[in-house]
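A quick aside before the break. I want you to see a complete sequence-to-structure record at least once, exactly as it would be stored in a machine-readable document. Don't worry about memorizing anything.
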Amino acid sequence: MPIVYRVQHATRYRYDAPVSQCQSEVRLTPRMLPWQSVLDTTITTTPVSAWSDTRTDYFGNQVHTFWIHERHDRFATVATSLVRVEPRLTGSSDTMAWESARDIIAAHQTTETLSAFEFVFDSPFVAAAPELAAYARPSFSKGRPLLEALDELSHRIFTEFTYKPASTSIDTPVLDTLRLKRGVCQDFAHVMIGALRSMGLAARYVSGYLRSGADHQGAEASHAWVGVFVPELGWIDFDPTNDVRPNQGHVTLAWGRDYADVTPMKGIALGGGKQLVDVEVRVQPVTA
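That is the input. The structure line, written in tokens, reads:
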């Protein structure tokens, strides 16, 4: 049965000096997908924007840009959506060997594999490395089915890394996370993506939300997981923070090569001095 969620993501800034004007870019509109439908979505700002624009980025994510021209010392953006989420067919673990999948992606002889091939390469926050390949290798024994290997790698990150909020920053190097084995969902997603790219596989960063009150790490906040291209099935998602394949408890917002491509909100402000930022996320079912 489908579940309809009311998703609200509020970001509030408080400045210790006035801001004369600012520009913000947000990726806060959930994607339309075979298993996910956006029934309604709105984004409001306080103060009200003088001008706004909407576009679709390279990866198919909706991007909204706002310009605030009036003087202010507080700024808030609230995105509210109604999203219907259907059960996903995630497939069994009886897939082709991971080496065969790697070779098919490398050959990129179809439109689908060519599109996936670009996610094999380094990106701003995630570069392939011998250390990441060494971490992945125990899960990728010769001839092992790809999905079976992916499930084990996700499980290993879940069991071997410690979820510790505020222990890292947006630009914490992925090799530091691998060495310290602690961080948050963003870090765990980057480690898994880097490990897979180091093995020649295509992996992307997915941003979204977890159902509020869920017994998972990362609820009540922006969440992140990993999409992996499986030639027989297409893109399959894995959440190494919670050791699950995302299903009806996950709402997909955006995807890209890494966090840099899907930052929920970023911008520039003239003035303002120091700032305090408060983010509040609620994902609550309205029908079941």
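Two observations worth writing down. The chain has a mean pLDDT of 93. The radius of gyration is 19 Å. We'll return to this after the break.
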